């Protein structure tokens, strides 16, 4: 499995009056880890665009278990778990100090051919190449 981690300190501009991270920012934290994961296979968004494919998120799930607080340091782990017909990436947010799981979730992305804007029902060969696999 391909994994990547991002260490983030919850900034003041991400929290509400209770000093808890607003729920919508969790998606941003997932995105930071997802970009690190895509860098691992040299297929981040600029490389996707250069290959002729867009990869929009079509499904997203977040399971909030514990809140994230102002100045808390977290580790966001992104793990690629499916790639044959779509990109499915699982996420886990942990407290950096204790390792306690605070949140988990996933995103699903599909390839869209940028020439005709048609969704692909199988991942294009370029992804398999980036993963070192044969389609």
Explained architecture:
With 135 residues, the chain is an alpha+beta fold. It has one domain: Thiol Ester Dehydrase, Chain A, CATH 3.10.129. It is 21% helix and 37% strand. It has 3 helices and 8 strands. A 5-stranded antiparallel beta sheet has the order 1-4-5-6-3, covered by helices on one side. The protein has a 3-stranded antiparallel beta sheet with strand order 2-7-8. The longest helix is centred in the first third of the chain and has 16 residues, at 25-40. The protein starts with a strand and ends in a 5-residue tail after the last helix. The model has no long low-confidence stretch (mean pLDDT 96).
Query: What profile does the largest beta sheet have?
Result: 5 strands, antiparallel
Please state the CA-atom Rg, rounded to the nearest Å: 16 Å
- The H/E string reads EHHEEEEEEEH
Given helix and strand content, the structural type is alpha+beta
| Strand proportion | 35-45%
Low-confidence stretches: none
The tally of domains stands at 1
Which term fits the overall shape? elongated
Q: What portion of residues is helical? A: 10-25%
First CA to last CA: what distance? 17 Å
CATH architecture: Roll
Identify the CATH homologous superfamily: Hotdog Thioesterase
List the strand order in the largest sheet: 1-4-5-6-3
- Indicate the CATH topology: Thiol Ester Dehydrase, Chain A
Query: CATH class, please?
Result: Alpha Beta
In oligomeric terms, what are we looking at?
Answer: single chain
Compute the number of helices.
3
Output mean pLDDT. Answer: 96
Number of strands: 8
């Amino acid at each position: 499995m391909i994994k990547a981690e991002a260490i983030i300190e919850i900034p003041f501009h991400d929290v509400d009056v209770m000093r808890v991270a607003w729920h919508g920012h969790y998606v941003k934290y997932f995105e930071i880890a997802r970009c690190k994961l895509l860098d691992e296979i040299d297929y981040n968004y600029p490389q996707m665009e250069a290959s002729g494919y867009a990869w929009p998120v079509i499904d997203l799930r977040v399971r909030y278990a514990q809140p994230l607080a102002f100045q808390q340091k977290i580790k966001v782990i992104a793990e690629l778990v499916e790639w044959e017909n779509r990109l499915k990436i699982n996420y886990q947010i942990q407290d950096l100090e204790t390792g306690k799981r605070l949140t988990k979730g996933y995103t699903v992305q599909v390839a869209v051919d940028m020439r005709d804007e048609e969704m692909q029902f199988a991942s294009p060969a370029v992804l398999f190449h980036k993963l070192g696999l044969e389609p």
